[in-house]
Amino acid sequence: MIRRLFWVSFGVGLGAAAAIISTRWTRRQVQKASPQAIAREAKGGFADLSRLVATSVDEGRRAADARERELRARYGLDQARS
Predict the structure, then answer these.
(1) Cβ contact 72:78 at 8 Å
(2) Which of 6, 28, 29, 59 is at 20 to 30 A from 74, Cα to Cα?
(3) What gap in Å lies between CA 22 and CA 37, rounded to an integer?
(4) Which of the 8 DSSP states describes residue 76?
């Protein structure tokens, strides 16, 4: 009889713990999938992409200017650009 009572109590405790853990996990997943969270992640991604594109364009302009100066020096076209 005591053994049966122990195992019933153990099962109830384990079930309660599993229910609490699964409820917390489910709440976290719902919060992650909320429209606000998705919009926040998308906004951060677009901001990162925007910075990457701006950096790439700046580097491209600097490289083009450096190459133009190099070619002008090589071919003696040191006159001012219009």
Answers:
(1) yes
(2) 59
(3) 21
(4) T
Query: What number of CA atoms fall less than 13 Å from residue 59's CA on the CB side?
Result: 6
- Residues 37, 31 contacting (CB under 8 angstroms): yes
Q: Hey, what are 51's tokens?
A: 């910075």
As given in the structure block, the two tokens for residue 17 are 């713990």
Q: What is the pLDDT of residues 42-82, one digit of tens each?
A: 888 888 999 999 999 999 999 999 999 999 999 988 765 55
Question: What is the rounded distance in angstroms from the CA atom of residue 80 to the CA atom of residue 72?
Answer: 10
Alpha-carbon distance 33 to 39, whole Å?
Answer: 10
